[in-house]
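Researcher: I'm comparing several assemblies side by side, and this is the next one on my list. It has 544 residues spread over two chains. Same procedure as the others: predict the full complex and return the structure.
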Amino acid sequence: MKKLINDPARYVDEMLEGLVAAFPGLSLGGESGRCVARAQPARDGKVGIATGGGSGHLPLFTGYVGEGLLDACAVGNVFEGPSVQSCIDAIKAADRGAGVLCLYGNYGGDRMNFDMAGEMASADGIECATVLGADDVASAAPDEAEKRRGVAGIVFLYKIAGAAAEAGRDLSEVAGVVRRAAENTRSIGVALSPCRVPTASEPNFRIGDDEMEVGMGIHGEPGISRAALATADAVADIMYERLAAELPLRPGARVAALVNGLGATPLEELLIVWRQIARRLGQAEVTPVTPMIGNYVTSMEMAGASLSLMVLDEELEALMAAPASCPFWTVSP
Amino acid sequence: MPVLDGVAMTISAADLADFIERLDTASARHEQALNAADARLGDGDTGSMLKRILAAMVAADARQSDDLPGAARRLAQATMKETGSSLGTLVATALMTLARQAGSRGGALAADDMADVTAAMADAVAERGKASAGDKTVLDSLRAVAEALRTGPATEATAARAARAALEDFRGRPCRIGRARMFPERSTDADDPGMLAAALLLDDVETIDAQ
């Protein structure tokens, strides 16, 4: 697989330079040089929302810094957690005097580094709370759901967190509603092809031309089953049924829905998948609210798609609908 | 000069630097094997990550530090600057523990201290990484090394034998942490990449001449 790069070792830094050059609403800085924040910080007294994670997943994570969403993001190397220093930078950049919610995916490196950064920020008088995105049903059984990894469903959590903070809620209230959103969110993905990190000479896994892997992680971690490549409808059914087994998709329910491309799948194919998901939701008498179809959380050039669903209540639906704006996603009033 | 050369020897910053340089050489030799082991259970980068971390530590040159605690802190900082990966953070955690252990002993360590120091490093890694004994991680290698150094001669050969024995002892047992625990039938036959790294690198350290 070919890549359009200059120097593998400069991949992330050059990407960040391009990002802030393209979007003047973003700034790049911190002691680490690996913190993306709003160029115009939010008003004093607003709860800050900080996130972080490895590169290679754009628009996640840095692409969601903006009004009504995130205040700052710690940026790691491709598929690596952000350094402790960049996590400290993100917490400090997000802090407007009302505490900071650290909202990131449940991965070992991210968690350890944000834990250390949170301890150090607390020592500096910044109150921190943490909510983890842990929506990937393929990464742990329901009885140990706390071990699940975070994947595309975290985009919903960013929206809920950003809207609650903009509405002026305090840190415990913001953390509380985001936790409820997380409890109501599930995702699963199906990969058709591998990806390759810029510094590696080989793809990070192999998959046959006629195969797909159900439940593969967004770094190429093994999934729950490998099967013969199926039609778009069959893949959609596999994903839908896996989520429906865990979510209360009762008649009359309303859901936020995201069909996410992993990087190398055309939008057309994602729409074909959505067509079947919408049909299944309709059969269950569940209403999707403003479905999102596109590349929201990618894995370099991995082909495939994921489905995320968040069951809504009135409050969550209102927060999802609140205005928000960032380089890759706008929600208009 | 080997780090664990005999009971009377004091471990210096230069000894630690030398040990890291030999690990660095060994990591280059085993990079692909470790990546392959990790690809069976995780995201396939353990060998490359370890090589990067060790290269960053060699570049940081622990010999420039005045004493062992300073050298260990210098290596921890180089690691944390290089990567935010879980492997890097756990290596840095172990090095910070080494620095504290040496500091609490007046800034120096003898070979006979290494059983306690290794046990303390294992405790810190467990606390940071939330792994337990028996989960089939590098923590089990560290605990095995600590126990062997306590009961046998405190040498690198003892440490290498213990890491190898731990690796073999855990073959046939499933991973109990991380994504690998989701497919016990596959993880039972596979070596944990961290345990494999401990065994391969400690084996090599004895035989590689310091640069």
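Model: For your comparison table: Chain B has one domain: 11-207.
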